[in-house]
Input
Amino acid sequence: MHRVTIENQTYLAEDGELLSHVLQKNGLAMEHPCGGAGRCGKCLLFVDGKQELSCRYAIRGDISVTLPTGQRIESQSGATESLAYTENMCYALDIGTTTLALALVSLDEKKTVRVITRTNPQRAFGADIMSRISYCQTHPQTELHAALADTVEQMIAECGVPAPLPLFVSANVTMLHLFLNESCLGIGVAPYTPVFLEGRRAKSFLRGVSEIETLPSIHSFVGADLVAGMYHIGKPKSGKYNLLVDLGTNAETVLYSEDRAICTAAAAGPCFEGCGIACGMSASAGAISAAYLEDGKLTLKTIEDKAPVGICGTGLIDLVAVLLDEEIIDPSGYLEGEEYPLAEGVSLEAGDVRQLQLAKSAVYSAILSLCHEWNVSFEDIGTLYLAGGFSTKINVRNAARIGLLPTELTNKAVSVGNSSLLGTVKYAIERPDLAPLAESATYVDLSGTKHFGELFMNNILFE
Output
């Protein structure tokens, strides 16, 4: 056994054990967005004063480890906190792939009392769903379940309620499986079969929780988070359609009228969370979150007004839109000079532009595919709802400029923040039967449509 000293604490490690595994099993924060493949470079730390990748470093002796400064992801839930504790309360939880959001809800006042957000600790096992499923193929799934459960317990404890309360949960299907510790392996391989889609009630395995209830899902890749979002938004005006787009790694999208719904999921990839981007990072302190021209000069805005240390999703969209207008990036995506410096140690690279092209084309082509399926025009859509914490800061016109969203819908776009959390809060208060809503939605597999492949190729360009 070897001794691993981290921040004045000593842990034991087997000979040859990966440093990333020591961090994970001891609950220490370190992201591994590529799932430990050694590609992303996001798990850099110092071992005995030398920079190493934790996911590739095999421990062969006693070592001293220095972690990078921890950064908390900024999250906008869209909920208003009353801070008025009452006698009859419950919890509502949204388990996002990147962020967790917990609401303490007053059932007496029918209001959100408090919201607490945390980074999903499972990012240590991979940035996206498939990398986490891949991890579970070679490691015990209980590692991911335990990491999530521990963090949720900490969030519940922070609410300061002494008595156990009921917990209502929404998430994508994989996150729900990991939360309830049901095998997620079937979701990772064709025919992508989950253990369950229905809403479930479970005995509590969390301190501070009396019972657990999850909302129902639609399909392996369209989960309870989208069902909660639809429920939060409600039905569209007569004769119109609502379009709800959750701008995340899986880009879940639903088009629905008063009496029918059609949905899909597009693999946008994790670039909106800063993964796969050379200087990409989560929406935390120092991340470039916005960019614009001021007196002909590129001006950058960062989270907490810190010195720039990387680029998050909204900043990436703005940067590419500005550089397109300045003809530094051409319509094909070619970046002049292959790299554009932004600050010391921070630049936009040609590969970043390519990653954004793939992601924006997936989202836009998914929207068009659903419209084609039902012969719905943009004029038929009453409102475009943008969901997810990422959506609250997005510049809609820049998103349309790069071809992420339809230009025709920019004036109809509304950010609804974390619609999954807000819908779960609403469900906890009203307790309707959401099974009919989930069962009424038709899932469209984009790979089997006549339109998607051609649309995807056509929408790659910035035109």
Notes: The radius of gyration is 22 Å.
